[in-house]
Amino acid sequence: MTHATPAPASAPGAGAPAVLHLSDVTLRLGNDEQQVTALDHVTLAVPAGQFLAVTGPSGSGKSSLLAVTGGLQTPTEGTVHVAGVDLTTLKEHQRTAHRRRHIGYVFQHANLMASLTAREQLLLPAHIAGRLDTAARRRAEELLEAVGMAGRADRRPHQLSGGERQRIGLARALVLAPDVLLVDEPTSALDRARAHDIARLLAEQTRVHNTATVMVTHDSEILDAADHVLNLRDGRLD
Ligand SMILES: Nc1ncnc2c1ncn2[C@@H]1O[C@H](COP(=O)(O)OP(=O)(O)OP(=O)(O)O)[C@@H](O)[C@H]1O
């Protein structure tokens, strides 16, 4: 792990292009009377195969960073390139399609469907995308194996531990082979041993699947697993 400064801004496409590139992003929230600058001129470039952790105190802008990066929120200023396309220029339906194709999410609390088995959780994104073919089924089995859950693939969420549910959440995020993996506080509900386990798994899967991974976290103990660590303070990266 190294403590890095934000990557220098370079136009996507110039040199080794970052899969994820935020350029001078500002996000203002609230109304005219009570305006908050949640992100303040943030520039960030993450190449394929890099695991970036972003840490910072409550209210520093971590959720805002993920929302903007994932195309869930449009910045007030700046551009957000994912796999070479500026999300801020897309219409809503185009952004949704681009997000589905290129971005995987790992949520704070796995967010699994109660009625589905672990294997079915992994098949669901492929089903929704109309890509539930032999290749998707094979990939789901490989990912179940990779996250150590092949032996529990027929269990439903209530039959799994918190750490096991989180591992399924990670495998599900990878099933459609996203270019960018966004991870929101993945260890907040886990004990220390399981937290380290998930952080190691994220690092390993970033390498194996060559994703540009961004994890926001309060958990300073898991930062060692990341390639780079950046700090957010009052919406600014340093
Ligand atoms: N809808 C909103 N309207 C106005 N201000 C908002 C809104 N959502 C968030 N904020 C403010 O924007 C800033 C950044 O919030 P954000 O949720 O991104 O921080 P965070 O680092 O994720 O916090 P936490 O760790 O507590 O989840 C905070 O000052 C917050 O109060």
Write a short abstract of this structure:
With 238 residues, this protein is α/β, with parallel strands linked by helices.
Show unreliable segments: 2-15
Query: How far is it from the N-terminal to the C-terminal residue, by CA?
Result: 16 Å
The domain count comes to: 1
Classified by CATH, the class is Alpha Beta
The CATH architecture category equals 3-Layer(aba) Sandwich
Number of strands: 11
- Beta content: 25-35%
Query: Please, what is the CATH homologous superfamily?
Result: P-loop containing nucleotide triphosphate hydrolases
Radius of gyration: 17 Å
DSSP helical segment count: 6
Main pleated-sheet profile? 7 strands, mixed
- CATH level 3 topology: Rossmann fold
Question: By helix and strand content, what is the structural category?
Answer: alpha/beta
Q: Could you spell the SSE succession in H and E letters?
A: EEEEHEEHEHHHEHEEE
Task: Tell me the quaternary state.
Answer: single chain
- Helix % is 25-40%
Average residue-wise pLDDT? 90
Bound molecules: adenosine-5'-triphosphate
Protein name: ABC transporter ATP-binding protein
Domain ABC transporter: 20-238
GO molecular function, one term: ATP binding
Keywords: ATP-binding, Nucleotide-binding, Transport
Give a description of the structure.
Keywords: ATP-binding, Nucleotide-binding, Transport. The protein is an alpha/beta fold and 238 residues long. It has one domain: Rossmann fold (3-Layer(aba) Sandwich), CATH 3.40.50.300. It has 6 helices and 11 strands. It has helices at residues 62-69, 92-102, 118-128, 134-146, 162-174, 192-209; strands at residues 2-3, 20-30, 35-46, 51-55, 77-82, 85-86, 103-106, 180-184, 212-217, 228-233, 236-237. Strands 1, 4, 7, 8, 9, 10 and 11 form a 7-stranded mixed beta sheet that branches. A 4-stranded antiparallel beta sheet has the order 3-2-5-6, covered by helices on one side. Helix 3 packs antiparallel against helix 4 (134-146), helix 3 packs parallel to helix 5 (162-174) and helix 4 runs antiparallel to helix 5. The longest helix has 18 residues, at 192-209. The model is unreliable at 2-15 (pLDDT under 50). Bound molecules: adenosine-5'-triphosphate. Residues 29-30, 36, 38, 56, 58-64 line the site of adenosine-5'-triphosphate (ATP).
